[in-house]
Design brief:
alpha/beta, 4 strands
Length: about 100
């Protein structure tokens, strides 16, 4: 189960992920982004409450990263140890701006 909270104002956006980003929830997560990224020049993804991520979740993050690469800046913050392990094994720790 994944809860997604989004907020945007003046070109800056935040996405807060709570729960598990797996095969099922990644589809809904990607749908929830429809139009959200359009006018953003700065995006922060807060993973403080994200406990788990699968390759399907990584695919959505890659989509966001590629979109934001053309528009501005993106960072990922508050990554827990388990999710960071997945980022390191998959090479995403080299792709994403993790703070």
């Amino acid at each position: 189960m994944l809860e997604v909270n989004t907020h945007s104002e003046n070109g800056k956006g935040t996405i807060e992920l709570i729960g598990e980003l797996d095969t099922t929830s990644s589809v809904e997560f990607e749908k929830s982004l429809d139009g959200f990224l359009d006018d953003l020049t700065d995006l922060t993804i807060d993973m403080k409450k994200l406990d788990y991520i699968t390759s399907a979740g990584l695919r959505v993050l890659l989509y966001i990263e590629q979109t934001m690469e053309d528009q501005g800046e993106m960072r990922v913050i508050n990554v827990c140890e388990d999710v960071m392990d997945v980022f390191e094994v998959s090479g995403f720790s080299e792709v994403l701006n993790i703070q």
